[in-house]
UniProtKB/TrEMBL annotation:
It comes from the Bacteria. It comes from Nocardioides zeae. Residues 453-473 have a biased composition (Gly residues). Residues 41-355 form the PBP domain. This is Phosphate ABC transporter substrate-binding protein PstS. Belongs to the PstS family.
Length: 550
């Protein structure tokens, strides 16, 4: 039934019992508060703005989380600038938190102290992801979107030992495909960067002699040594912009995968120890990080929850992306911390509670990979230290089992469901086969489907083509409806449903689970109730308003 159009209101007094739309919404929220203890608690807490600096590697997802919680009254200000700057600002007491891909190193590359000084702190893992190599390379006037490189080739490119795109090593990585004689221009970070530290840690561990030719110390560094044709830019966004610019043909840079995904720009498929070229989708990162060693022995240790990635670099699962890692928030846990108040601590707790739970469902679409639930649980333990420092901080209902997290299998907090359902690589991604014709930088797996470009398809692959079932050179991929062991990469059990690519949809993980029971649950409840009841309440209001104006 169509609502009657109310006549123009007269200036007569209205009944005090007629609620205006704003009052209706307020009443609805008040009703929610009387029926939900969590909602009442959420509205009773006092927030104060918190400020942080640091990583640009994780900045895109952090900014999304900040926008998500703004409606709850939380105000979080975050500026990039690089992990080194973030750690330094935190140590100087000029910020409330920092974000970094590496912990404090004790002494930096220049002999200066890289510690938190006298400020008590804890590391809090916030998101996983892959350090990707985005590039611009054109054949004629067409962008190459399916480039493949081995780790050895990448190491030699960034140490100026391979300087042209027609180099035989690049041709070999791409199964005989040739590229134009164009100079290679590496784009590196000019600032102290966690992305650089992660990249150079991998170089040091897997390609030590090559790395020492440019950096004799042979260790990780946050400041990439720029030589030759290399261009240095501050921040991941500027590296991405330089590569994607109109003058960027021939460039290659390293950034977190989210930047090319959001720019719709290609990335290199990196050869892993399983013999396949892969890109850092959320699935391949999740698989690789099952081999990470996280220091969890002593929760009171200063390096609690920090990562040892040597097993990740050497992972033999054909789905694993070698340069996978975590990003960390550095939080203040001292009771006498001069910057912190109860309101600030509460803001930090509730912001990170959202980020570690509901916020993780957005990691995949943004080019990151969600944390496994054991790290989320450990993150809750770190947040609880803010309550220990200040008894006024509300920590109720922080239960990891209520997290809507794509990695959670509902039974084992130490198992990563995302890694279990990760699709096997296409046969055309195997070393010596392909390359696949499908685009990179999309966040989705490659395919052998000729309709999607196939191996040697629209993007101009070379070598022996493989068919839909993996015929020809290479081996047939594991069917997409078969679950795969995250350690061996071998099929372990058939899924209950039929074929088609398997994707870990967060919705299917929450269909039989309770919603978040924290202070954000009332927002969802308000939306649902508003959709159900608000239209009817507005109809009643319009009718009463019409009657009152007659």
């Amino acid at each position: 039934m169509r609502l009657p159009v109310p006549p123009r209101p007269r200036r007569a007094a209205r009944s005090s019992r007629v609620l205006r739309p704003a009052a209706l919404v307020a009443t609805l929220l008040l009703l929610l508060g009387t029926t939900s203890g969590n909602a009442a608690a959420a509205r009773s807490v006092v927030y104060a703005q918190i400020e942080g600096t640091g990583s640009t590697w994780s900045q895109l997802i952090v900014e999304q989380w900040i926008a998500d919680v703004e409606a709850t009254g939380m105000r979080v200000a975050y500026t990039g600038g690089g992990s080194s700057l973030g750690r330094k600002n935190f140590a100087q007491g000029s910020t409330d938190f920092a974000i970094s891909e590496i912990p404090y190193q004790g002494v930096d590359e220049f002999g200066n102290a890289d510690t938190a000084g006298n400020r008590q702190f804890a590391y809090l893992p916030i998101v996983a992801g892959g350090t990707a190599f985005t590039y611009q390379l054109k054949v004629g006037n067409q962008q190459v979107r399916n480039l493949r490189l081995s780790g050895d080739t990448i190491a030699k490119i960034f140490t100026n030992q391979i300087t042209s795109w027609d180099d035989p090593a690049i041709k070999a990585d791409n199964n005989g495909r040739t590229f134009p004689k164009i100079p290679i221009t590496p784009v590196v970070r000019a600032d102290g960067s966690g992305t650089t530290a992660q990249f150079t840690a991998w170089l040091a561990a897997r390609h030590g002699s090559t790395w020492k030719s440019l950096f004799p110390r042979g260790t990780l560094t946050s400041y990439f040594p720029r030589e030759g044709r290399a261009i240095a830019q501050a921040g991941s966004d500027q590296v991405m912009n330089t590569v994607a610019s109109s003058s960027g043909n021939g460039t290659i840079g390293y950034v977190e995968y989210s930047y090319p995904v959001n720019e719709d720009y290609p990335v290199v498929k990196v050869l892993n120890e399983g013999g396949y070229y892969v890109e850092p989708t959320q699935y391949n990162v999740a698989v690789a990080l099952t081999q990470a060693r996280i220091k969890t022995e002593d929760p009171s240790a200063s390096d609690y929850l920090t990562q040892d990635l040597r097993g990740v670099y050497a992972a033999t699962d054909p789905r694993a992306y070698p340069l996978s890692s975590y990003s960390y928030m550095i939080i203040p846990v001292g009771a006498q911390d001069r910057r912190m108040t109860t309101a600030k601590r509460q803001t930090l707790v509730d912001f990170m509670y959202y980020s570690l739970c509901q916020g993780q469902t957005k990691a995949g679409p943004y080019g990151y990979s969600p944390l496994p639930l054991n790290l989320v649980q450990a993150g809750f333990t770190q947040l609880a230290r803010l309550g220990t420092a200040d008894s006024g901080v509300e920590l109720a209902n922080r239960d990891v089992r209520s997290c809507n997290n794509p990695t959670f299998n509902g039974r084992n907090l130490n198992e990563n469901r995302l890694a279990t359902v990760a699709p096997a690589p296409a046969a055309c991604d195997r070393q010596g086969a392909g390359p696949c014709g499908t685009d990179t930088g999309t966040g989705e797996p490659s395919t052998d489907d000729p309709a999607a470009g196939g191996s040697g398809g629209a993007a101009g692959g070379g070598g022996t083509a493989t068919g839909p079932a993996g015929a020809g050179t290479g081996t047939a991929p594991v069917a997409a409806d078969v679950q795969v062991d995250p350690t061996t990469g071998q099929p372990v059990a058939a899924a209950a449903t039929g074929g088609g690519a398997v994707f870990a949809n967060p919705l299917e993980l929450t269909s039989d689970r309770p919603g978040d029971r924290g202070p954000f649950a009332w927002v969802v409840a308000a939306e649902v109730l508003a959709l159900v009841f608000l239209p009817a309440m507005i109809t009643v209001w319009l009718r009463r308003r019409q009657q009152a104006s007659r």
